[in-house]
Amino acid sequence: MRPTSSVSQACNSTSETCLRLRFGRGLASRLCTSAAASRRARRPSIISARVRELASAAPCKRAAASRLARRPSIASARESLGGSVVSASLDDASLRARLPSRACVRENEVESRRVVRSNIANERSLRFLRVSGERRNDGVASMAIFARETVFGRVQKRCKNGLAFRLVRPAQASGWSRSANDATTAFVTPHTRRDRCDRAGSRISGGGSIQPATALIGPHWCSLCSGDVCKRDIRSACGPVRSVALNSHESKPYVFSGCRRHFESGAAMDLQDDLTVFGLSIALLAVAYAIGRVVGPKVTKCETDEQRRKQRAWILTLISSVVCSAHGVFFLGRVIKHGFGHEFSRGETVADRRVALFFLAYCIADLATGALDYIDEIDYQSGWAHHSFYGIGLCVLLYRKHTHFFMAGLIEELPTVLLAWARLAHAKELHWPFALLYFIVRILYHVVATFEVLEHSLFAFGLGLVIFRQHLWWLGAWWRRSSASAHAAGPQETRFKKTNAQLNLHTKLLICAAMVITQSATMLHVTIEGYGRRDWVHETMTVVGLTCAWIYFSYEAVLIFADTYTRGFIALAIKEQKVIYNISWEDPRVEREELKLSSDDVVLTISSAGCNVLDYLLEKPKHITAVDLNEAQLAVLDLKLACVAAKMPQHDFFALWGRSDPRVFTEHYRPSLRARLRRDASRRYWDSNLDELFRDNWMFCGTSGLMAFLFMLIARPLGISSALQRNLRFEDLKKGYLARLIDFGAWVVGQPLVWTYAAPLGGIPPEQLALVDRRPRVFSERIREILATRMWSRDNYFYHGYCTGQFDAFPKCPRYMSAEHYPKLLAMSDAELKERVTLFHGSWGDAEPPTSSGFTFVSLLDSMDWMPPTLLATLVKDMLSRCDRAKCRVFWRSYAPGPMLQQKATDLFTVHSPALAQLPHREVQSYDRVGWYLSQWTATIPQDADLDALCPAGSSKTYENSLMDDALVCLAMARQALRKDKDVAAFYRNQAGRYDGFRESLLPDRDTFLKYTVPWSRVPTLLKKQPTYALVCVGCGTARDVEFVADHLKSLPRSARVALCDLSPELLAQAKLRVDKLGLADRVDLIQCDITAGPAALAKLGLRSKDSAVVACSYCLTMIPAWKAAVDAMLDLLVDDGALCLIDFTQRFDRASTLVERVYKAWFGLDGVYFNRDQVDYVAARTAPEYYAEARSRVPYTPWYPTRYLFAGRKEA
C-alpha cells in the first residue's frame, strides 16, 4: 500500500513549533516510506529509529513515542513521520520559502483535483480535496488534504489515526461574504490510500491552484485533532501564521484554528450592545402596546370587556410576527439564491443578533403584560410554556453566537400574522388559506430547514425537532376544531348551519392525506440525503435517531388523518346528507322478544337504514316514530315505505334492496315511488342520486359500506363467501386451511391497535371505542368469538350480506324482505302505513308521541354511547317526560361490557352512563347475532322519580389561578412531600385562598360527579325515610362541590339539610364564605370532624347513624390513612338503599402492578395521596355497585396521567 506524502515544513530558529501527535496501528510500517522526508533529514537518526520502534509497540509505548517526538532536538524525526501533518507557527519568510508560488506551480504543471459539490445550487459540503505538487528546490514530494465544509469551529469529520485541523477566517474580517471553499477542515492521515485520492480526483472538474495568503494574522489559538476530540488546546506564542487559501478565484487570509467548539464569525456585539438592543425592544413593544390598546377597540368594535381583553392579548403578537416575518422573507430570499448551506455557514451578523434579542424581548413583554392586563388569555401551553421554551432557546443561541439559525425560522411567523389579525378583528374561524400557509411554512419548510441545520449544529437540530412536534400538535388541534366548529357538543345537541363553511368529508380526507404523504416524503428525502452526505453519521448512532424521528413524525401526521375520519365522518355525513348505515346493525329480534312488542305499543326508535322499523312494523304496533338527524337515513326508510305503499312485488323489492338491482329502481322510481315519498328532503336526495347507489352495490354504499367492501375483499379469496352461501359452519372447516386462516385473522383483528382504526370504518365513533379502551381483553375475545362462531349461524344475515355483497333467501336476509313476511306489509294500505309510521328529523329527545299517554316502547340502539354526560342526561330527561311511566320499557345497546362479561367481581362492569344508572335497569342476556355490542340493557321509569333531577341546576363558574398562585401551591406541595409526618391541616392552612384555582384542573370531573353520579332522581324517594341530611360531603374543602348543584339544593324540601365536613378549619372558613354567597346558609351545617373518629364522636357533632340519603366523598379517601374506617363510617351514615358516591384517584384496574402505576403511586404518596386499588374493591364489596367508570387526565405542569374513578353504590339493607 502506497502511503500519502506529508506536507514538509521547516521550523524557523526563532519560532517554536506546536505539535500534537498520536500514533495509530500500522504507523511503524509507514515511517520509513517517505524518501523525500529522509533526504531532508540528511542523516540517519537514532532518535527517529527509537520513535519508529515505539510506534509499532503497545499503546502505552506509542504515547512515549509521542512525547519523544515533541522534543525540540528531533526536527528530522518529526519530518520522517510520513503522512502526519502538524500545525506550525512560522514566520513569513519561512512560509513563503516552503509554499510554491503561483507561477512556479503553473510552470511545473501542478496537479490539482477537487470534488464537485453534490448540489451546487445549495453549495453542499466538499467531499475532500487533493492537491499534489512537486518542486525542484525544496524537495516537497506531495500534499494531500481532505477538506469538508464545517461551521462554528466544530470538526464534523474526524479521521482515524490522522490529524484534522480547520482553516477559518479571522475574527477581524467581519461582513465578508464567504466563497464556496471557505472554512474547511483538513484531514491528513498516514492511512489514506492513494487509490482513494485517485478515485476522488477522477470526479474533479475544473482546475485550481495553491495561492499563498496575502495577509498575516496575529497569534491565534492553534490545536490539532488526532482521531478523537482534542483534550487540550495549545496557545501559540509565536509569530504570525500563514495558511493555504483553497480558492482559485481570490486569496483570503486564514488561520489554523483546530477543533474549537465555538468561534466568532461576523461582527461582534458585546454585552452592552445586547442590553441596549434588548432595552430598546422592550420600550418599542411597550409604546406599541399602549397605542394598540387605545386604537384597537376603535378600529374593530369591541362590545364587551371580554372582547377587549382578548383583543389586547394579540397586539404584541401581531407586532412581533410582522417584524419577524419581514426578516424571514429576506432570509428566505437569500436561501433561494445561495442555499441553506451558505446561510448556515456564514456565522451570525449584527442583524441576526438584534432580531433574536427583539423576539426574546417580545416573549418576556407578552408574559409580563399578560400577567397584568389579560391573564385569562394566557394559557399554559401556548403562553407560559411556549414563551419560556423560546426564551431559553434564544439565550443559548445568543450565548453560542448561533442566532443565524433562528433566522431560518422567522418565515414561519407568517401564519401568526393571519391568526393575530383575525383575533384582533374578532374572527371566530380561520379558513383554509391559513391552513395551507401553515402547512407550507411550519411543516414542509420547517422539516427541510431543521435537517439542513443538522450538519452545522446538533443543538439547533434538536430544538427544531421539538418545535416541529409542537407545530404538528397545533395543526391537529386546528384541524379537529375546524371539523367540530359546525356543532358544539355533538350533532344531537345543536343543528348544523348551512352557512358554516365546511369542506365535505371526501375533500377534507383527500387534502389531509396529501398533506400527510407530502410531509412524510419530504422528511424521508431530507433524512436520506442527509445520511448520504454526512460522513460522520456512519461513525455514530445518529442514523438510528434520524430514522426514528421520521417514523415518529410520520405516525403523528397519520394520526391527524385518522382523527379527521373517525371524529368527522358522522358529523360531516349528517351535514352533507350522506348515508352512513346501509343496513341496521342491531338485531331487532332481541328487543322484540325481550320487551314483548305488541299491537298496543307506541314505539320510539332510531331510523338508521329502516330495517328495524320495518321489522317492528310486522308486529303491527299502534304507532312507530322513527327519528334520525341524518336526512339521508330518513330518505332510505322513506323509499322503502314508498315501495310497500306502491305494492312493489316481493321479487322486485328483494332485487332492489337485497341484490342492488339498479333496473328495478329505474323502472319504479319515476312512475310510482317518487310521488309516494313523504318528505321533500327525500325527493331531493333521490333525485340527486337516482340509481347511482344501487349501480355501485347498495351493500357497499355509505360509510359502513366501506368496511363491508374491505370485508368482502378478504372473504372472497379465502373462500368465506362461498362457504357462507353453502351454509357451512365453522366446525365444517376446522380441518382445512381456511379455519387456520380465520383463527389467524381473528387474532389480528382482535388486537386493540387494529380494531381501534378499523372500527370507525363501520360507523363507530371514537367515543364508543373509548368505552372498551380500558378493557381491550373483553372486546378482543368478542371479535374472535364473532369470526369463529356468530357469523356462521344460518340466520345471521348481517355478516352474510357483508361477506357476499348480497342477501339470499330467508333466513339469509332481514325478515321484512322475505317471501314469508313481506306480504304482511303489502296487506297494509297507504293510509294505514302513514298512520302507523311517522318520520321525524331531529333528536329522539325532541320527538313527540302521537297520543297523550306517551311512548311505551323505546329502542335507542347504541346512540347513547358517544354522548357526553350533559347531553345524554338532557335527552333522557326530555324523552322520559314523554313516556308512559307505567308501561314504558326502554332498551339500548352499548359497547361497554356488562356484568355478564366480568371474570371477577372487582372488574366492576356497569352501565356506561351515570344518568342511566339512576333508572332501575338490568342487563339483557338474549343472544345477539351481531355481537359487536358487549351489553344490552332495559330499564323502566319509577313512578316517583324526579326526572328534572337528572339535570340538576347549579353554577357554571370556573376558577383559575395565576402562574404565581400555582407556583405557591406547588411549593406547599413540595414542603408537604419533604415532611416525614404528613400534616393535612397544615398542608391546607396556607393555600386555602388558592385551593380552588389549582384543583380545578388537578381534580377533574367533579362537576360530572356531583351533577350526574349522585342519584338526585332517587333522593325524593329516600327522603321519605325522613333522614336529617339529604347530602353529607366528606372532605368538602372550600365547598366547591356544592356550588355545582347549589340551585338544585334550594329546590329540596326545607327539612332536607346538607352537612359539609372537613378536618381543616381554614378550608371550612372558606366554605362558609361560599355557602353564604350561594344563599345556602339556612340549609348547610359546617362540621369540623375526623370521619374516622367513630360513631359516638360523630353523633355528638350531629352525624348520626342512618341519617343521610347520600354521602359523597370527593378526592378525599386516598388522603385518609384509616380509609377502611372512613368507608365504614360513611356507610353507617346512610339510610337503607342510600347512595355512597366517590370520586378519587386509583390504580388502573387491569394494570395496578405495572411500572407506570407504581411511579404514580410513589409520586402522589410524597404529598400524602396514597393510591390503593383495594379501596375500590372494598367499597364495591360493601355496596351494590350501580355505576363505575375510570378515566385519566394530565396533572398540571407534569407529564403524569393518573387514573381516576367515579363510583356510585347502593347500601343494601
UniProtKB/TrEMBL annotation:
Could you confirm whether the keyword Transmembrane appears in this record? yes
Q: Which residues form the Methyltransferase type domain?
A: 1034-1140
Tell me the keywords, alphabetical order.
Membrane, Transmembrane, Transmembrane helix
Q: Which InterPro entries match?
A: DUF3419, Methyltransf_12, SAM-dependent_MTases_sf
**Could you list the residue ranges that cross the membrane?**
275-292, 313-336, 405-422, 434-451, 457-475, 505-528, 540-562, 698-719
Per UniProt, what is one Pfam family of this protein?
A: Methyltransf_12
Name this protein carries in UniProt: Methyltransferase type 12 domain-containing protein
